Amino acid sequence: MRYDLVIFDNDGVLVDSEPISNRLLAGYLTELGHPTSYEDSLRDYMGAAMHRVHDLVLERTGRRLPGDFDDVFHGRVFAAFARELEPVPGAVGVLEKLAADGVAYCVASSGSHERIRVGHRKTGLDRWFDDGRIFSSQDVGRGKPAPDLFLYAAERMGVAPARCVVVEDSPLGVQAAVAAGMDVYGFTGMTPAARLAGATRLFGDMGDLAGLLVP
Q1: CA dist list (Å): 100 to 105, 123, 156, 164
Q2: φ, ψ at 107 (rounded to 5°)
Q3: How far apart are CA 61 and CA 9, in angstroms?
Q4: Distance CA 134, CA 119 (A)
Q5: Alpha-carbon distance 174 to 189, whole Å?
Q6: pTM, entire model
Q7: pLDDT beyond 90 at 47
Q8: Quick one: which of 14, 31, 90, 211 could link to 206 by a disulfide (CB 3.0–4.6 Å)?
Q9: Residue 54 pLDDT
Q10: Across 182-199, average pLDDT
Q11: Are 167 and 8 a contacting pair, CB within 8 Å?
């Protein structure tokens, strides 16, 4: 492998959660009087921490979201996860290959620790990620597109940023990885390639990733 650490985004890269969560986010915002389509949600919030939702709504409307917004939203998301969530096709095979080759890997997600773990338990990915391999925007002051989360994950894993590669599917995540001084492989499974133009390379099938990481 050409890298010493593979840092995975979670939503849309390991677990197929983006369609679920963005559908529910658009619906909830609309319900609260902030009309939002599914496409709007993908464009504005995919890959972002929850504070971005609050910040953009306040900036655009001058109105704050309810104090229990995050709790209500996550309750809806977790209920939907229990019914619908699956791993991204090919993700398990990539993790098996990295583990077999002794390559370090971790997850660094804009989602909360609870959201990451709920998704991993439902999809069976929890077997691949102990607590020492899970990093959340909750662990740092600023979420993506700031580089803080990826730099924190690399530091905790003991690997220099230049020896890391990030696997991302959102423009915000690509920006964060570039700002961290890391290579980034942009996954175009849901995101148009043009929106991930800053990535080191692009790929459309998660099953191909392990092969792409080999020099």
Answers
A1: 12, 20, 22, 18
A2: -120, 140
A3: 30
A4: 12
A5: 15
A6: 0.89
A7: no
A8: 90
A9: 97
A10: 95
A11: yes
Q: What percent of the chain has pLDDT over 90?
A: 92
Are the CB atoms for 47 and 173 separated by under 8 Å? Answer: yes
What is the DSSP annotation of 49-111?
A: -HHHHHHHHHHHHS-PPPTTHHHHHHHHHHHHHHHH--BPTTHHHHHHHHHHHT-EEEEEESS
Token pair for residue 198? 């800053």
Residue with the two structure tokens 């996860």: 81
Distance CA 206, CA 121 (A): 20
Instruction: Please give the angle made by the CA atoms of 60, 52 and 139, to the nearest 5 degrees.
Output: 160
Is the CB of residue 8 less than 8 Å from the CB of residue 110? Answer: no
Token look-up 């607590």 returns 131
Q: Give the number of other Cβ atoms within 10 Å of residue 204's Cβ.
A: 12
- Which residues contact residue 112 at a Cβ distance below 8 angstroms, ignoring those fewer than 6 apart? 50, 74, 136, 137, 138
CA 46 to chain centre: 8
pLDDT > 80? residue 78 = yes
User: Is the Cβ–Cβ distance between 119 and 87 less than 8 Å?
Assistant: no
d(CA 4, CA 153): 13
